[in-house]
Structure formats: structure tokens, C-alpha cells
Amino acid sequence: MQEMALRVLSADRLSYADMIDCIRQEKANILYFSPTAVLVEDVTCGICALAATEKEEGVKALSRLDRRFAGWIVAHGEMAREATYAVFPIKDETKTIQVAYCKAPFDFSPSLTFASPSEKELQAIKDGYDRESPENIQKIHDKGELFSARDREGNFVGFIGFHPEGSMGLLYIFPDYRRQGYAEETEKFLMTECFRRGKIPYGHVVYGNEASMHLQKKLGFEAADQYAYWLRQ
Fold first, then answer.
1. Nearest CA to 38 among 21, 67, 16?
2. Which residues, at least 6 apart from 171, have a Cβ–Cβ distance to it below 8 Å?
3. How far apart are CA 159 and CA 147, in angstroms?
4. Could you tell me the pTM of the whole model?
5. Residues 72 and 38 in one domain
6. For the chain, what is the domain count?
7. Residue 80 backbone zone (phi > 0: left; psi -120 to 50: alpha; other: beta)
8. What is the span of the domain harbouring residue 62?
9. Mean pLDDT, to the nearest integer, of 20-39?
10. I need a surface site. Which of 49, 90, 101, 228 has the fewest CB within 10 A?
11. In the predicted model, what is the mean pLDDT of residues 192-207?
12. Which of 74, 196, 99 is nearest to 145 (CA)?
């Protein structure tokens, strides 16, 4: 089933880079497959992702989930979004654009130093970053997927990491160190981590975040033609 699902998803690699990566990293439970719908659960975090080009097939796929399902569903495209709303009482929605880097690895010689955060740095990340809970940040750190960035003087200038389902994110440069190219360099570092781990470099940019989208395009990421909706009851 994995090979058949990959064949369907690979027809639109940009839209389904997250699902393809989940399967290739061998952490996917494929809950439903058909030529027009694929439902995948990331067994490491419980987040599900739905690809559906027909609403009816999307509904059929989602019927495999308990109606009391309380986790996140990433619905790729309008049909998947409509199917999710038809099955679950969705109350929380974030509209995003999925971006992926589909080119060859590149040489990278950073001026910054990247390492696992110290305890003091980890606490600063938990206190200042609001897109992941402190509990999730701790889990990401414990998995070795959170990195601090330090300049040549040893100053803690920012951080980056992987979200629980594997997307690139958590990018933050402290105000005193901005406009020095550190955001671009820090994201390039995480891209090289993706290459090293055999992952697809991909991420989700919240709709309307033009600064982030500008950075992704500058780095060579391509944007999917359809939106990815993060949905939760």
C-alpha cells in the first residue's frame, strides 16, 4: 500500500511533500488509500494528513477516524477541507501554504554555530515561542530536533527546529541580531539537516506571512498550488 500511496501523492509532490516524507521516514500509518484520497497518520505525534481530490472520497477516508478524534488534521486542498468539515465539528483552522525544496543539496559554510540548546537557552525558547507548547518544545529538544544559533562571540542569536510532524519551523532571530542574514543562514542549516537525515525540506507558511514567504522563495523553496489547512475540533 505504501508504494501505491506514494505513487498517487508524488503526482503533486509540492502539495503532499509532508505526507511523502512521513511515509519515507517509516512513521506513517496509512489509514485509507484510493486513487483520489489518501489518509495518513504520523504515529510519532498523532497528526493526520488528508489528500483528497473528491469530497466524497475524503469523507470515506475520514470515516476511519473516531468521531471524537481530538488531534490535528492537515487537509490538503479545498476538497479535503470540505470533507473534514463534513465529518468533524471543526473549531480551529489555520490556513497555510506548503513549501518544499526540490533541488539538489548545496554546499554550506555558516558563520554561526548550531548546537542543542543549553538549559538556559531552552527555557528562553519555551518562554518566548508561542507556536508550540512548552511541553512540545521539550519533546522536540529531547528528540535532538531543536537547535540554537550562536555568533562568533558566543551570543545566543536565535533558534530553529522541526515541528512534531517533521516540518521545518520554530525559526526565530532575536531583535538585536536581525538584518544580518541570520534567518537565512539558520534555515539553510536546517535544510542541510534534512539532507543529512534523508528528509524532504518542507514547511508550512501561515497565509499572509509575506516576510516568511519571501525568505522561502529566496532560499529556493517552491509553493504548492493549493492551500494546506490545519484543522482541529
1. 16
2. 158, 159, 160, 183, 186, 187, 190
3. 6
4. 0.94
5. yes
6. 2
7. alpha
8. 2-101
9. 97
10. 90
11. 97
12. 196
3-state SS of the chain is CHHHHHHHHHHHCCCCHHHHHHHHCCCEEEEEEECCEEEEEECCCCCEEEEECCHHHHHHHHCCCCCCCCCCEEEECHHHHHHHHHHCCCCEEEEEEEEECCCCCCCCCCCCEEECCCHHHHHHHHHHCCCCCHHHHHHHHHCCCEEEEECCCCCEEEEEEECCCCCEEEEEECHHHCCCCHHHHHHHHHHHHHHHHCCCCEEEEECCCHHHHHHHHHCCCEEEEEEEEEEEC
What is the residue-averaged pLDDT of the chain? Answer: 96
Give domain status of residue 217, yes or no. no
Sign of the torsion formed by the C-alpha atoms of 209, 210, 213 and 214? negative
Q: Does the residue 209 lie in any domain? A: no
Residue 190: closest CA among 168, 212, 167: 168
Amino acid at 35: P
Whether the CB-CB separation of 221 and 208 falls below 8 Å is answered with no
The cell numbers describing 132, all together, are 508550540
Residues 22 and 86 in one domain: yes
> Does one domain contain both 149 and 182?
yes
